[in-house]
Amino acid sequence: MSENGLPPSWEIRVSKSRGIPYYFHPETQESRWEPPPNTDTDKLKAYMATKYSSSNTGADTSSGNKSQGEKIRAAHLLVKHEGSRRPSSWKEANITRSKEEARAIIERHEQSIRQGVVTLAELAKTESDCSSARKGGDLGFFGRGDMQKEFEDASFGLEPGQMSGVVETASGLHLIERIS
């Protein structure tokens, strides 16, 4: 077991498109967002906190202006419908709900979050149709041009800690919470 807690031959790399760490095995070419089996999670958490902390995002905000390379971090809860770009998820192989049914579901979720009954992260783990559900909807850091325009515009329009209303993209209906 290495200092980072990963099993032999596994490496931590950073996604070029999303700017967040992932796990890679050079011999098998397997890559994954979640740690591989037999990872020492306590060691990994400590390693990630020192090497990949949010203070190392590369965003230059020292001038007070948003730099062109600014990256933000957000989480979301996605409800797909039959008209979504890929109407399937980790929960359902074939999503057949209508857009109206999806809207009713996500509006109920929004109400529960705004009333303080549950957090977006808690709800995303069980209810989001995105694979980010396992991370509480956390998408990590991303910049302009990394996400669908509607999603990006809504995300960059939020202040850290704020949650959007329902945002519609080709992927489905989202609630977005800006983390940083």
Automatic annotation (TrEMBL):
GO terms for biological process: positive regulation of transcription initiation by RNA polymerase II. Residues 51-70 are annotated as: Disordered. It catalyses: [protein]-peptidylproline (omega=180) = [protein]-peptidylproline (omega=0). Residues 51-67 have a biased composition (Polar residues). Signal peptide: none annotated. Keywords: Isomerase, Kinase, Rotamase, Transferase. It comes from the Eukaryota. SMART domains: WW. This is Peptidyl-prolyl cis-trans isomerase. Residues 69-180 form the PpiC domain. The keyword Lyase does not apply. One of its GO terms (molecular function) is kinase activity. It comes from Orbilia blumenaviensis. Pfam families: Rotamase, WW.
